[in-house]
Amino acid sequence: MPHTPAHEADSHDHAVSRPASPCTKVCRIDEITDRCRGCGRTLDEIARWGGMNAKERERIWQRLDRATFPAR
């Protein structure tokens, strides 16, 4: 798909519509996956979230989206 300004706006709008953080206030790390049972992030991702730029956060959001809604 060609890169167009409209496509950029769609991508940006998707990111803007997200909450500030994936945190669900259910902070329990799964011993097998080493991910939070509430939000799905690793301890490193949780610790670094506040200092991440939008692109880094979006990458994590996309992984969380795939984990929550796998390809159908």
Instruction: Using the alpha-carbon principal axes, give the shape.
Output: globular
SSE order, as H and E? HHH
Beta-strand residue percentage:
under 5%
Task: Supply Rg.
Answer: 14 Å
Explain how this protein is built:
The protein is mainly alpha-helical and 72 residues long. The protein has a domain at 24-72. It is built from three helices and no strands. The protein has helices spanning 5-16, 43-48, 54-68. It is globular and about 30 Å long. The model is unreliable at 4-11 (pLDDT under 50).
Summary keywords:
46% helix; mainly alpha; 72 residues
How are the secondary structure elements laid out?
Blueprint: H1 5-16, H2 43-48, H3 54-68
Condensed summary:
The protein has helices at 5-16, 43-48, 54-68.
